[in-house]
Structures are given as structure tokens and as C-alpha cells.
TrEMBL record:
Pfam families: Menorin_N. The keyword Lipid biosynthesis does not apply. It comes from Pygocentrus nattereri. This is Menorin-like domain-containing protein. Residues 59-290 form the Menorin-like domain. It comes from the Eukaryota.
């Protein structure tokens, strides 16, 4: 039988092209797929609130927050209110006995210790977010949290600013020291890792730079826990490509959008995030008036 050399030659070329194309497709898919550390976990906070019936779908915008529950009156108010997540600040008392207390700088004392705060919280099904303002408070606080953990029903988030961010003047907690204290003791928790930031009216406030998000991702990549990045709402319009890239690096990552009391926020600036990201991956920790206005926008859903 006579063989057509031209046909064989063309067939070989087609086969090579097919192999190269398939190899490139697989490699590209792997390169663009979210990475996860071995044995890593996703954020199950929404699943918990869905099961409880306090939200109706896996939409992180439906999770409500209570801020600065740093006193006996505030924590009792939070437990009686509709918020699913209770946030409070933790630091070491400024005088003896030097123990973890619920307070935000510049305050150095409180009418409630972390131990007493946890003993009240365990009677509820709320989630909690502990915002550490002092590295010295982390180790004794994590020990107290371990003692209460078996009784805690809701999600536990551990928060600290570990890097300097746009306009940030405050000194962040040392990232390595903080994570050494919490990583092994908070295997089932959400780590909320952020940047120190600043915002000023009537100026061009910079957003989160590529260097900032890449540095944060390098720190978080080896972690097994789900990580949420608290990001300042007023800085989001100038940070979209950077934060989009950050979320693409792992399916363990989410954003928690927050706002300062004096920040000027146009809620329409949040729409690109609402429209371009999965609704389960962005929490909105905003003022009640802001979240209501945001949800009323025609393009919100």
C-alpha cells in the first residue's frame, strides 16, 4: 500500500499541536486555580448561620455585626440583639492584675475580663470576633479561649492587623509572633488578618498596593485556616484589581469590608465587588444606615 508522506507529515503536526494545546490548557487551569495548603479548611460561618436559620442563603452580606462589645452592658445588649457576629477588642490590662480585658486603645481598663466575657458568650449561639490590640494579650487569651472552646457554639474569628497598609500610622502586630501563638490553637477558626490603615477627607487616599496584597498572600499561603482580609470600604474604589487578585489565590480567602466612623463612603463604590465576586466571599461590616442604603441600590442583586 502506498503511503502518502504528506498526509503522514500533516497528521504528525496536528498531533503535536493537539498535545501542546492540551498541555497548555491543563497547565493554565492549574496555574489559575485557587491554591490551598495541604489539609486546609474553608470558612463555614455561612453554613452555620444557614443551619440556624438566621440567614436564608449563602450571602455574606446578610450577616449582621455588633461592634465593640467591650463592657458588661454592651455584651448583654449584643446577646439580646439580632446580630449574628459579636466583635470585641482584647488587650492586656494596664495595671495589676495584668490579664486580658475587653477594651480598645487608648483605654487600658474595663469592667469585664475576657474570661468573664467568654463565660457570658457561651450561653448563646452567636459567633464572635476577637480583635487583638496587643501582642502581649494573645497567648493568655488563646489559653482562655481553649478552655471555653468546647462550650462555644458559633464561629470564632481571630483578628489582628499584621501589616502596614495605606495611610496606616499605627504599628501592626508582628505577623510571625502573632501567627505562632494562634495558628496551632485556632485550627477551626477564621483568621482575620489585616493592614493598619488611615483615611483623611479632601485628599487622595491611596488604595491597597500590589506590594501590600502580595506580601499578605505570601504570609497566608502556608496557613491551613480560612482567612478573611478586613479591608477599609473607603479605600476599595482604588483597590479592585489588587483585591480581586488576592481572592483568586485561594478559595480559603474572603474579604470583610469595614468602615471607620468618620469615613465618607459612597456605597455605590462597593457595587463592583458585589457584582464580580461570589456573594459568599465578601462580608460587609458597615454601619446600619450604610448597609441599608447599599442593599437598596437597583444593581445590588
Amino acid at each position: 500500500m502506498r503511503v502518502n508522506r504528506r498526509s503522514v507529515y500533516l497528521s504528525c503536526i496536528c498531533a503535536v499541536i493537539l498535545v501542546v494545546t492540551l498541555t497548555w490548557t491543563v497547565w493554565t487551569h492549574m496555574a489559575n486555580s485557587p491554591s490551598s495548603a495541604a489539609g486546609s479548611k474553608r470558612d463555614h460561618s455561612l453554613d452555620y448561620f444557614l443551619k440556624k436559620g438566621t440567614i436564608q442563603e449563602r450571602d455574606a452580606a446578610d450577616v449582621n455585626w455588633y461592634h465593640a462589645a467591650n463592657s458588661k452592658d454592651k455584651i448583654n445588649e449584643a446577646l439580646e440583639g439580632p446580630a449574628q457576629m459579636i466583635e470585641a477588642d482584647v488587650l492586656l490590662r494596664g495595671h495589676d492584675p495584668k490579664e486580658p480585658i475587653m477594651a480598645h486603645p487608648p483605654y487600658t481598663d474595663s469592667d469585664i475580663t475576657l474570661q468573664d466575657w467568654l463565660s457570658v458568650v457561651v450561653t448563646s449561639d452567636k459567633g464572635i470576633k476577637l480583635d487583638f490590640k496587643s501582642l502581649a494579650a494573645v497567648e493568655p487569651s488563646m489559653a482562655l479561649l481553649e478552655e471555653a472552646r468546647a462550650q462555644l457554639e458559633g464561629p470564632v474569628w481571630i483578628n489582628a492587623d499584621i501589616l502596614s497598609g495605606p495611610g496606616g500610622l499605627a504599628t501592626p502586630l508582628d505577623a510571625q509572633a502573632f501567627l505562632q501563638e494562634v495558628a496551632l490553637r485556632a485550627e477551626g477558626d477564621v483568621l482575620s488578618l489585616g493592614w493598619t490603615t488611615g483615611w483623611s477627607p479632601d485628599t487622595d487616599n491611596p488604595g491597597y498596593s500590589w506590594e501590600m496584597v502580595q506580601q499578605m498572600e505570601a504570609i497566608c499561603r502556608p496557613l491551613r485556616q480560612p482567612v478573611t482580609f478586613p479591608v477599609r470600604a473607603a479605600l476599595l474604589p482604588q483597590s479592585f484589581p489588587q483585591l480581586q487578585w488576592l481572592l483568586q489565590q485561594s478559595d480559603r480567602y474572603t474579604l470583610t469590608v469595614w468602615t471607620g466612623q468618620r469615613d465618607v463612603l459612597n456605597v455605590e463604590d462597593l457595587l463592583p465587588y458585589r457584582q464580580n465576586f461570589n456573594k459568599s466571599r465578601i462580608y460587609y461590616d458597615l454601619l446600619e444606615s450604610q448597609i441599608s442604603k447599599f442593599k437598596a441600590l437597583p444593581r445590588y442583586n
